[in-house]
Design a protein that fits this description.
The chain is mainly alpha-helical. The protein folds into three domains: 124 residues, Rossmann fold; 158 residues, Serine Threonine Protein Phosphatase 5, Tetratricopeptide repeat; 169 residues, DNA Cyclobutane Dipyrimidine Photolyase, subunit A, domain 3 (Orthogonal Bundle). It is built from 21 helices and seven strands. The chain has a five-stranded parallel sheet with strand order 3-2-1-4-5, sandwiched between helices. Strands 6-7 form a two-stranded antiparallel sheet. A hairpin with a 2-residue loop joins strand 6 and strand 7. Helix 8 packs across helix 11, helix 10 packs antiparallel against helix 11 and helix 18 crosses helix 21. It binds flavin-adenine dinucleotide, ligand DLZ and iron/sulfur cluster. The site of iron/sulfur cluster (SF4) has 14 residues, from helix 13, helix 17 and helix 18.
Length: 513
């Protein structure tokens, strides 16, 4: 065996087994991976997120070892673990007499800074490599929208469809339309069509015990004997295979539906595997397109286009926005919101059935589907005027798929409109009417979905009109908001006063809702 010369760092969300680094073994290269407090404490993560990332990292390291690669793996419980990337890297350099260092582009601005300065501190030549995961470069979106104030996802998405020849019929979109979103708005009435879901049952108890012994802060619950998230590509592919067979045929149609008794519906639940790079997005897109082509009698174009748009469009777009806008994006607060996050976001203990259901489900599974994140929790926090930094902290901690590049752009941008309209063309707010139209929460709620005022009035109703009223200057010239301002203008002054008083009362008693 040759002596080690080069050190290569692999982060917890860089578990790409097909990376060119791993094609051939080389005795002079040492890979290092580390479970560190510094990564586990920057927000209070869900226990399933911590344990899931450590589980997937360990599985990845074992697979590399089996292939013959040399690995230095630091577990959270190891005595010689200095618990930060920089301190561990300095120690490893001395221990092995390392002469050069390489790492893959981190997806997070904070870590980009940390690793740049770590590379300096090491005082040896260093190199940054691509993660070979995304379909676009970090700065591709910025170049695409050069000089523009808003970044329209749809135009970026179309350019990606053409560039990668996805769902294309020569120069035209397959089926004649680029986007079938208008067909994706059905409420699910027949619950019997919800398919059996594929859920792994990993025994992850040893890692859970180590995390508990290390006293890492966390939120949420876990069944560590039957851990429900994939920890390797085989399990992730298995979930995706099942999705193609049973959920994709309904994906687009019921994308925005909400059902109290089912948290998975027709969603793929591959975001954790994608964001940790166990799955490759291009491979997923190609498999979805191929599966659709072979099963067109069962799967309509609206279903597959809706799914592909999320990955080829939204996911790449959000990453591009992140790198175009960071670090200033993390301080954006267009409405100057200052309130703190109500305690029931940590406990689920609220009279609002929609919020209670989504928060409890999130604490239990580290997951909520898109419309729950956007139109239940996000909608409420925006209308309640909660400071976007607290909102970010909650979303970044609670979801298993939450990594800042895709969390902050969705939360601060799409959901809280804190960027003033870079990502979204209007704030995503609604009364109970939308929540009731798309789901079944209102039927079991202590509040009345139809009331705007009075002790039983649904808080979403008065908060909605109050939000519009309070932010008139910033929003009334937005063409997409014009109709709602016209409706508000038709309320009598007396009714407007009552609604605004009701909202004021709710905002003063936010913790009691
Ligand atoms: P599916 O509904 O099956 O969609 C398939 C895939 O498309 C997802 O796995 C995901 O990779 C991609 N996708 C879908 N919507 C988006 C989107 N808006 N932005 C980027 N990719 C998307 N997604 C994250 O991956 N991490 C986050 O931290 C995150 N935070 C969010 C916060 C808020 C407030 C909102 C409104 C959305 C957030 N999303 C986030 C986007 C989306 O909700 C999740 O990607 C999705 O719920 C993951 O579940 P799934 O894999 O079952 O997705
Ligand atoms: C989220 C996370 C956690 C909880 N722990 C670790 C860890 O101990 N070691 C590690 O390499 N990565 C961890 N991660 C993921 C990183 O925070 C992730 O690499 C960054 O968020 C960059 O996207
Ligand atoms: Fe939510 Fe209001 Fe419906 Fe209750 S009535 S579930 S608070 S939207």
């Amino acid at each position: 065996m040759h002596s080690i010369k080069s050190l290569r760092l692999v982060l917890g969300d860089q578990l790409n087994r097909h990376h060119s680094w791993f094609k051939e073994t080389d005795d002079t290269v040492l890979y290092c991976m580390m479970e560190v407090r510094s990564e586990s404490e920057y927000v209070k993560h869900h226990i399933q997120k911590i344990v899931g990332i450590f589980g997937a990292m360990r599985d990845f390291a074992n697979a590399l070892k089996k292939q013959g690669h040399r690995i230095h793996y630091l577990k959270i419980s190891d005595r010689n673990n200095k618990q930060s990337f920089v301190a561990n890297l300095l120690e490893i350099k001395e221990q092995y007499g390392i002469q050069d260092f390489a790492y893959q582009e981190p997806d997070e601005y904070r870590l980009d800074m940390v690793l740049k300065s770590a590379a300096n501190e090491l005082g040896i030549p260093s190199k940054v490599h691509s993660t070979q995961h995304f379909l676009t470069q970090r700065d591709e979106l910025q170049v695409f929208f050069e000089g523009k104030k808003t970044y329209l996802m749809e135009s970026f998405y179309r350019s990606q469809r053409k560039k990668h020849k996805i769902l294309m019929d020569a120069a035209k979109p397959v089926g004649g339309k680029w986007n079938y979103d208008v067909e994706n708005r059905k409420k699910l009435k027949d619950l019997s069509i919800i398919p059996e879901h594929k859920i792994p049952k990993n025994n992850i108890m040893p890692i859970y015990d180590e995390v508990i012994n290390a006293n890492l802060p966390f939120i949420g619950s876990i069944d560590a004997n039957n851990f429900i998230w994939p920890i390797n590509p085989i399990q992730a592919e298995d979930i995706f295979d099942t999705f193609l067979q049973t959920q994709l045929p309904f994906f687009g149609t019921y994308q925005d539906t909400m059902v109290q008794s089912n948290w998975m519906l027709f969603h793929s639940r591959i975001s954790f595997a994608l964001n940790t790079k166990m799955l490759n997005p291009f491979h997923i897109i190609q498999r979805a397109e191929k599966h659709w082509k072979e099963n067109q009698e069962k799967i309509g174009i609206a279903q597959v286009e809706g799914f592909i748009r999320q990955i080829l469009g939204w996911r790449e777009y959000m990453r591009g926005v992140y790198w175009a806008q960071m670090p200033s994006y993390a301080n954006k607060n267009y409405f100057y919101h200052t309130r703190t996050l109500p305690n029931y976001f940590w406990s689920g203990d609220t009279k609002m059935n929609c919020i209670g259901t989504v928060v409890n489900q999130s604490l239990e599974n580290a997951y909520a589907h898109h419309i729950q994140r956007l139109m239940v929790t996000g909608n409420f926090l925006l209308m309640a005027g909660v400071n976007p930094s607290y909102v970010d902290e909650w979303y970044l901690g609670i979801y298993i798929d939450a990594f800042e590049w895709v969390e902050i752009t969705n939360t601060r941008g799409m959901s809280q409109f804190a960027d003033g309209g870079i990502v979204a063309t209007k704030p995503y707010i609604s009364t109970a009417s939308y929540i009731n139209k798309m789901g079944d929460y209102c039927a079991n709620c202590q509040y009345d979905k139809n009331e705007k005022t009075g002790p039983k009035a649904c808080p979403f109703n008065s908060l909605y009109w109050n939000f519009l009223d309070q932010n008139k200057e910033k929003l009334q010239n937005n063409p997409r908001m014009a109709m709602m301002y016209r409706v508000w203008g038709k309320f009598s002054v007396h009714d407007q006063q009552n609604i605004l008083s009701q909202a004021e009362y709710y905002l003063d008693h936010l913790e009691e809702l």
